[in-house]
Structures are given as C-alpha cells and as structure tokens.
Amino acid sequence: MNIIRNLFLIPITLLFINCHAKVKSDTNTTANNIVAKKTILSSAELQKNETAYFASGCFWCVEAIFESVKGVKEVVSGYSGGKEQNPTYEQVAYGRTGHAEAVEVYYDPEVISYSKLVQVFFGSHDPTTFNRQGPDRGAQYRSIAFYKNEEEEKIIRDYIAALEENMVYDAPIVTEIIAFDKFWKAEEYHQDFERRNPNQSYVRAVSVPRLNRFKQNFKSFLKEETH
User: Fold this and answer.
1) Is residue 104 part of a domain?
2) Which contiguous run of DSSP H or E holds residue 145?
3) Angle subtended at Cα 182 by Cα 130 and Cα 106, rounded to the nearest 5 degrees
4) What tens digit of pLDDT does each residue of 20-50 get?
5) pLDDT, tens digit, for every residue of 120-152?
6) Which ranges constitute the DSSP H helices of the chain?
7) Would 121 be classed as within a structural domain?
8) Number of compact structural domains in the chain
9) CA-based radius of gyration for the chain
10) What is the extent of the structural domain holding 115?
11) Secondary structure percentages of the chain, helix, strand, coil, to 5
C-alpha cells in the first residue's frame, strides 16, 4: 500500500521534541504562520465532500493542523467517542462523559486520500501517551482514530503496524481504533479558536508551536497559503 511505502518520507519522530516539556510562553513564537484566511462553505457545498474523524488532544490544535492541509475543505471541533447525548464543553472537560475532544474533517478525496489524513493524524501528535497530549491530561484528550467502514479500519491498522514494525516510537502506540458513531459539534466559540485568538496564552504556548512543527515536517501536504 502507498501509505506504508511512503511512511518514512516524513520525519515523524521530529514532531515530538519537547512534547512533554513544561508549557511556557515563548516570546519568539508568533501567530504569523496560522492560516490567515478561510473560505466559508455552505452546508450544501460541504456535503459534496467526504468526512473523517480524529481525536488527538485539544481540538483547537487539531483543527488548525487539519485546516492547513490541502484538500481539506473544513474542520469542525466537537466531541465523540462517548455515549452522552448533546455533551457540553464543561461536561467533557471535567470528565463527566466518555467523549474525547475530536474533529470532523471535510475533505476532497480527489485531492487528498483518507490514508494521507491518517498520516497527518499520527504525524501531528504523540500516539504513545495514554489519556494525555502535551500538557493536557485526561480521557478527553486521548488519541482516537475513528473509522466509518472496513477499508478505513484497515488503513488505520496497517499504518499502526508499519509504525510498530519500524520502531518509529520508543513506547507502545495507545491510539484507540473505534467505529464512528456520532459527532457532536462543540460550542461556537470553540470553532476556529486558534485562528481567531492568535494571542491567547495557550494558543501561543502550545497550539502555535504544535502547528508549526507539523508544517515544518509536512511541507508537501500544505495548502499554498499556509507555507
């Protein structure tokens, strides 16, 4: 499969430098590399695209990463992986549901394949940390790859097998592989949070550096305006 053959074209291990470091403001880190403009698509336009679902820590970070990828038309922050109906941010944040912060990715399969989105997912977070991503701890920040059909499940499992076979990580991958059930859109103030709040302390200290590390290592995946 191309997904395995191209595995080491991307220096995945470089993305996790300082992943566990103490979070602090970096005066040299700016929001200049965040996507500056965004095309708003109607619901009808969005429905022409395929969807994919992932969870890998704070959805502010994950949304910004996927929105920088060519072929991705829209990314929505929300909650998935649990049984609670209509969860709120407060419920999820305090561990009162089984949901994780997740994203809904609308993408054009003629531009980017699901297998490449899986590469983006694994290459933009540390899949070996249990119920944690960077400074964020709790089951709501766990790593999950959701699949909608057998083909997607196989792509995920094959990619994990390739990562493990080639010992890309020093620790076991703990990413959950879950059949997609329901995605609940997060409150409106969470949508495009990183884009709209470039100087917010968490965004400057955690989100922007994470986005910039991804962009440095996945240059061929980026939209022209995000280079």
Assistant:
1) yes
2) strand 143-147
3) 90
4) 333 333 333 444 444 446 778 788 888 899 9
5) 999 999 999 999 999 999 999 999 999 999 999
6) 2-5, 43-46, 59-67, 89-93, 114-123, 150-165, 193-196, 201-202, 208-217
7) yes
8) 1
9) 16
10) 50-215
11) 40, 20, 45
**Residue the block writes with tokens 């620790």:** 171
Residue 64: helix, strand or coil by DSSP?
A: helix
Judge contact between 185 and 76, C-beta under 8 A.
Answer: yes
Residue 42 and residue 73: Cα distance in Å, rounded? 11
Could you give the C-alpha distances from 164 to 17, 134, 211, in angstroms and in order? 19, 21, 25
Residue 58 designated active-site: yes
* 75 Cβ contact list (under 8 Å, min separation 6): 62, 63, 66, 67, 103, 104, 105, 106
- What is each CA distance from 26 to 23, 29, 31, 65, 115, in whole angstroms? 9, 5, 11, 20, 34
Specify the DSSP element, H or E, that contains 175: none
Query: Domain of 108: which CATH number?
Result: 3.30.1060.10
pTM of the entire predicted model: 0.84
Q: Helix, strand, or coil here: 196?
A: helix
Q: Which of 58, 103, 112, 145 is catalytic?
A: 58
Determine, yes or no, domain membership for 72: yes
Say if 38 falls within a structural domain: no
Phi, psi of 95 (to 5 degrees): 70, 25
